[in-house]
Amino acid sequence: MTIRTGLKRFLLVDRILRVDAGAIEGVRAFSNAPVFLGIEAMAQLGALLVRHLCGFERHAFLLKINQCILPRSPTLNGPFLLHGRLTGRSDSAFTCALSAEQNGQRSLEAECIFAVVPYDQAFQKEMLKNHYQEVFSCLKNGSPAS
Amino acid sequence: MGILEKISGVLADILDVEASDIEAETYLIRDLNVESIDMLEIAVSLNAAFNIKVSENDIFLRNLRPYLIEAEDKGQAQAPCLVEKFPFLTPDRVQEILADLDSGPVLKVKDLAGFVAYQTR
Fold first, then answer.
1. What's this model's pTM, rounded to 2 decimal places?
2. How far apart are CA B74 and CA A7, in angstroms?
3. Domain limits at A84?
4. Contact A91 B56 (CB under 8 A)
5. Vertex B117 angle, CA B115 and B121, to 5°
6. B40 touches chain A (CB under 8 A)
7. Which domain CATH number covers A103?
8. CATH assignment at residue B72
9. pLDDT tens per residue across span B46-103
10. Measured by CB atoms within 10 angstroms of the end CB, which terminus of chain A is less buried, N or C?
């Protein structure tokens, strides 16, 4: 099956500017992008924080989006600063407050819940751990990530 | 605000029910139809609300029945085994649980409150 997203790639974070135990900051430049891609970019940034906090030892996936605030404009253009802040965690789940801002104005906000599970047959450690570690490292170092 | 009241608020928000309908004796799965996906959200919300470490296995009594089987296999009494595995449950509550096992999932709101109280003691 071929899924055509209309995107050159599905990674919607251009760079990670800062990450620590409870927060992450990144950037993404959009060009006439529908708003849902902004939500996806924030979710991807949150998932990167979660994977980082788990030492890339577990698979993370988006479980739920709470309290999503959308911009008035139907499309996103230009660079956006993406913020993620850890607001809760348990053994198997993490909550992040995420936002995207442009020129100091907050355009999108969402609270996302991520679940983490051990790697298994469906989510294979050999492939996913290395892949996400490499993506994270490239985004942090400013080198191209696929 | 007391622990139980705060937990009721968390559950009401997540499950979209009235907080006033949630009591200490309310069963999470039998009465509130809590599903595994809700449990993850409840766990992170309790972590945020009370600033406590939350293990889903402990707070939701996930391994309760395997622990009982294990105790039986080893010829041990079940109640002390549960008290040891879930130290936030009182001996009285453990007896209640053992008497209630055949009726379905035993987890009640007061067990979450017991976990939170134990973690914040």
1. 0.89
2. 59
3. 15-139
4. yes
5. 120
6. yes
7. 3.10.129.10
8. 1.10.1200.10
9. 999 999 999 999 999 999 999 999 999 999 999 999 999 999 999 999 999 999 999 9
10. N
